[in-house]
Specification:
single chain; alpha+beta; six-stranded antiparallel beta sheet; five-stranded antiparallel beta sheet
Length: 222
């Protein structure tokens, strides 16, 4: 699969209209990060479809305040994310809210691939392969983050069904080219992304592709 960059403008692609303050491409297999100010909205565009976007979220002013999968799942009584889901820290305070979603299901359980997990799951011949944990570490260094700051992440556009016996499956995603979701920052947040490089399972259709990251600042009515 070859990703074709959407020719529409950021204004047209943003799910929540407003002034465009950031319009960037997270490259296939690569990391991306930015601080999103309170009230601003990050629209993530799955350019080619079937791409997993591993994500961590921190309070911008205090990185010890960070996304908690356990608290988020408990607060919403659901293991999947969609419109209306509030991503919370360990004290159940909101960090971001999904305000629009064209896919309808995003993962909280699958975690991030690493060189170690690749060798365990797929064999030692994969030990050299770049993985999400390495992306998080490389990009996180720009913000003073280290391995101790990495917590269980969420995976936008990734489909991880739970079998009746409790086992997790990693299967083809439910997204398609141009599908989007939008996250409103409920406070100033640092968003840290690994645009997953995994080629050993179907989460990326075995072919990682770019995604587009658009931040808008919605107009405030007088």
């Amino acid at each position: 699969m070859t990703a074709t960059l959407d020719s529409r403008s950021a204004v047209d692609l943003a799910l929540v209209p407003g002034d465009v303050v950031r319009d960037e491409i997270a490259p296939a297999r690569g990391p991306w990060s930015a601080v999103v100010a309170a009230g601003d909205v990050l629209t993530i565009v799955d350019l080619a479809g079937n791409q997993a976007v591993d994500t961590l979220i921190y309070a911008a002013e205090d990185h010890a305040v960070r996304y908690s999968a356990a608290t988020t799942i408990a607060a919403q009584s659901s293991i999947v994310l969609t419109t209306g889901s509030v991503l919370r820290d360990s004290e159940s305070e909101p960090l971001v809210t999904i305000v629009a979603d064209e896919v309808g299901r995003h993962d909280t359980l699958g975690g991030a691939c690493s060189q170690e997990s690749n060798t365990l799951r797929y064999g030692h011949h994969t030990a050299h392969q770049h993985a999400c944990v390495e992306n998080f570490l490389a990009e996180g260094m720009r913000w003073g983050l280290g391995k101790a700051d990495l917590v269980p992440n969420l995976n936008f556009f990734m489909n991880v069904p739970v079998d009746p016996d409790g086992a997790l499956g990693i299967v083809d995603g439910l997204s398609a080219p141009g599908k989007r979701l939008a996250l409103r920052a409920d406070r100033d947040v640092l968003v840290l992304v690994s645009n997953c490089p995994q080629i050993n399972n179907p989460c990326n259709g075995f072919d990682p592709t770019p995604v587009r990251m658009i931040v808008t600042s919605p107009a405030v009515a007088p």
